[in-house]
Specification:
18 strands; about 375 residues; 9-stranded antiparallel sheet; alpha+beta
Length: about 375
């Protein structure tokens, strides 16, 4: 029963025990993973099985939730208020000034040849006593094409999000990833126009990922760049796929994370700039999360006339990881919303600020609708 489903989540939260509830894009099934104790497990070599929650800083450890209890439900019949209008943040003049100066620094470093692109972010703090489970239900209702989640560990914190970006999927030896860059508001236009800044940014990201995966996967292919919708925003996306030459998921993730779409390129230089200049800790914003080495049993029937030997079972292993964008962190009666944007040599600081304001509406309207 749906009531039991959400009551179980609420009970886990009240008992301060780790869990995650999530739904994959365009699916009905909401999955939950409960850990039986509050022990903090860290990921070591990506051979483990569980739900991984990794920070932006790849030098910091990723958290792994154990699959002590797993269950799912589709008959949830979630009803929340429809959101008919946008809710913009109240502009903090000091914060705007700080972000504009940060963007100007980034542009200056790009023009000086320090790096090609850097992704700069900020956070917004709002007061809210809305229960996390209510926020999660609103995310599920409003963002059916995103990966929606509610994640909690008493020793780490509570996070929610609705992210459109896949870091990678791997089904046995078949790997797929994507480059996602460029942003504009959705205006019911089937053929939106993109400027040179966004198109160049997308090409840079795609080229960087192809180079990062070179030698690690074979039969590499890429799709034509397309426009995809994520809530009230549009992005440019290119899918990249191939076969893993060796079972070394760790090497592939280390090559991809943090991606140019959330960090910049070259990775080491831009990551160092972000850690030094953003003046706050991103924590798990622009990190990644998802299913790691989940086992799936499949049945095949190759001999329909021979019932005794008709069913063949095979075990496949799958990993599905998402970049933690469009997210919020709940801290007592406050909520932090994290937003950012890609900076190139053609960036305009004022426009970059407006882009972060546009992105903040995704989570802000969830909070307003749930109150």
């Amino acid at each position: 029963m749906p009531l039991d489903f959400f009551q179980k989540i609420e009970s886990q939260l009240e008992n301060k025990l780790p869990f995650v509830a999530y739904r994959k894009p365009n699916e009905e099934m909401v999955n939950t993973i409960f850990q039986k104790d509050n022990q903090l497990h860290h990921l070591h070599d990506y051979t483990e099985t569980g739900f991984v929650f990794a920070p932006f800083d790849s030098d910091s450890p990723a958290v792994l939730l154990k699959l002590d209890e797993v269950f799912s439900s589709t008959d949830l019949s979630i009803v929340t208020k429809e959101i008919f209008q946008e809710h913009a943040e109240e502009v903090d003049v000091e914060q705007k000034s700080l972000h504009l100066n940060l963007v100007k620094k980034g542009i200056a470093e790009i023009k000086a040849g320090s790096f090609d692109k850097v992704v700069l972010s900020r956070n917004i703090e709002v007061d809210s006593e809305t229960p996390p489970l209510s926020l999660f239900k609103t995310l599920l209702h409003q963002y059916k094409r995103a990966f929606c989640y509610l994640w909690y560990h008493p020793k780490v914190g509570l996070w929610l999000g609705a992210t459109p970006e896949i870091l990678l999927t791997m089904q046995n030896r078949q790997l797929t990833t994507m480059s996602l860059a460029g942003t504009q508001n959705y205006a019911n236009d089937e053929n939106p126009q993109w400027g040179n800044k966004e198109l160049e940014e997308q090409q840079l990201v795609t080229r960087y990922i192809l180079n990062a995966l070179n030698g690690k996967i074979s039969n590499m292919k890429q799709t034509p760049t397309e426009t995809v919708q994520a809530g009230n925003l549009l992005h440019l996306r290119t899918k990249i796929s191939g076969n893993v030459r060796q079972e070394n998921l760790k090497a592939i993730i280390e090559a991809l994370h943090p991606t140019p779409a959330v960090c910049g390129m070259p990775k080491l230089e831009t990551k160092a700039f972000i850690l030094a200049e953003e003046k706050y800790n991103r924590q798990f914003y622009t990190g990644f999360l998802g299913e790691l080495n989940f086992k799936e049993e499949r049945s095949r029937n190759n001999r329909p006339r021979n019932t005794e030997n008709s069913v063949y079972r095979s075990i496949s292993k799958s990993t599905t990881l998402f970049v933690n964008l469009r997210c919020m962190q709940v801290i007592n009666d406050k909520i932090k919303i994290y937003v950012g944007g890609g900076i190139t040599k053609d960036s305009d600081p004022e426009k970059e600020w407006k882009e972060t304001v546009a992105k903040s509406k995704t989570m802000l309207k969830v909070i307003i609708a749930t109150e």
